[in-house]
Amino acid sequence: MAEVGAILPRRAAPKSGFPGWYRGDAGYVDRIRKQFVIALLISSDVIAAIFATSIGPALLATTGIDLSNDKRLPIAFLILTFFCLRLYTGCGPSPYERFRLRAIGIVGFVAVDLLIGFDSGPRFVAGICEAFLLLTFGHYMEAMIRTLLIRVDLWGASTALVGCSDSNRQLARLLMHEPALGLTPIGFIETPRDRAQQITTLPLPLIGTIADRHRIYRHVEFAICGSGSELSALTSEHNPAMTSCRLLLVEDVRDFQSLWLRTRMLGGAIGIEIRRDLCLRHNQLLKRAIDIFLAIPMALLVWPLIAILAVTIKLVDPGRAFYVQERIGRNGKTLRMIKLRTMYADAERRLEMHLNSDPQARAEWQRMFKLSRDPRVLPFIGNFMRRASLDELPQFWNVIRGDMSLVGPRPFPAYHMSTFDDEFQAIRVSVPPGITGMWQVSSRSNGDLQIQRAQDLFYIRNWSIWLDIYILLQTVPAVLAAKGAK
After folding, report:
1. Is residue 446 in a domain?
2. C-alpha distances in Å from residue 263, one per residue of 94, 269, 270, 272
3. Mind giving me the DSSP string for 335-376?
């Protein structure tokens, strides 16, 4: 077994060479981390709220609606609402759940605001506009602050994992890879079972044993237990220091829903309610209504750009500017997906010649069905449209027709779909495909088949209207950054 060492400050050295106070005493930084993060989050929400509540009435004033004399709730009430929803804990929750809580808080805030000052139809329109601006600006401001805090290693509570089991080691790697989840692992707590198994390879150091738990409580904000026995061992004796350490009992539920779970008390037991919200009829109708409500005005807005791109394509390579590609749609039916052409007219011949002459390219194609250097793509305009996802714009027509949704698993060609197992294929075609989705706002083309499978399953099993709106908002920075686009 690896030697048990002392608990080290997680910020013994800065990640990014951040100047000034960050290079000082790491213990002091740990002590003020939570207060600093909370203050920064509140400040970002105040700035976003001031901007949203100022620009909304200004935009409406251009239409002749004057709201300057309306009674308004103070922004402090919005901050208090977010505080009650636990958005200012300094240790999470996950970005998806934070977005849902933020949306609920804004809806409540705007509803009360309308009750106080409502006296006409224009005021109702103003409330909807204000809610949209508050949600959008607040979401992007928080994302920017979270990225900054992650960069300087201040986002996430210091966390110890109780036990060195395979699942805990995988969890430690996950938390290290996804700091946005809000838990920063600093080491493992050894159990008697670990010592008997003589585990020698760990992604993080040992910081103590179960017997040292009273000392460890003073240095970590969270302790994660992988079983009820480990949780019982930690809580077998009362210790005042434990009040500052929060405990998490973790169960691997990757094959089930993991967002928006509901708990039920069943006598002395805890039940977890799991359901597939996307399978409910009223949710399918709601999703379709939102698609129509958003797709029609967006299609009207982008059609001049589509026309300009179509003319440019014909100038670069004579032929049709649009083409219809057959993909696997809902219930396994053939979907005729409309796209702007980004490839040469003889694209298939060029691909076959390239794969035959380059074994590395063939291996890349078989692994991801994408090429980092694709000989089929039109010069300049083709790469530009792909990186900005402009070739997908005509698919708003597919959404209006009902063939697709704005958000959903990306429809795959038959050859791509056939590489997955039958069970996953059945799950994937049970929901409407989308223009954008979980894979597009995270990995995009950098994700291989296993990542695609995991992210599509995550979306289908955890669907909610909040998750759809979150993905739509995340699509904007993903497209602008062109990260992973091919």
Report:
1. yes
2. 18, 10, 7, 5
3. EEEEEE--B-TTHHHHHHHHHHH-HHHHHHHHHHS--SS-TT
The three-state secondary structure class of 224 is: strand
DSSP annotation of 377: B
Range of weakest confidence among 158-162, 262-266, 309-313, 468-472: 262-266
C-alpha distances in angstroms, 164 versus 127, 197, 316? 52, 10, 59
**Hunting for tokens 């949704």 — which residue is that?**
405
Q: What is the identity of the amino acid at 263? A: T
Full domain range(s) for residue 239: 157-171+181-276
For the record, the structure tokens of 288 come out as 């379709």
Nearest Cα neighbor of 58 from 135, 138, 126 is 126
Same domain, 269 and 188: yes
pTM exceeds 0.70, yes or no: yes
Same domain flag for 198 and 66: no
Euclidean distance between CA atoms 104 and 135, whole angstroms: 10
Residue 358 burial class via C-beta count within 10 angstroms: exposed 0-12, middle 13-18, buried 19 and up? middle
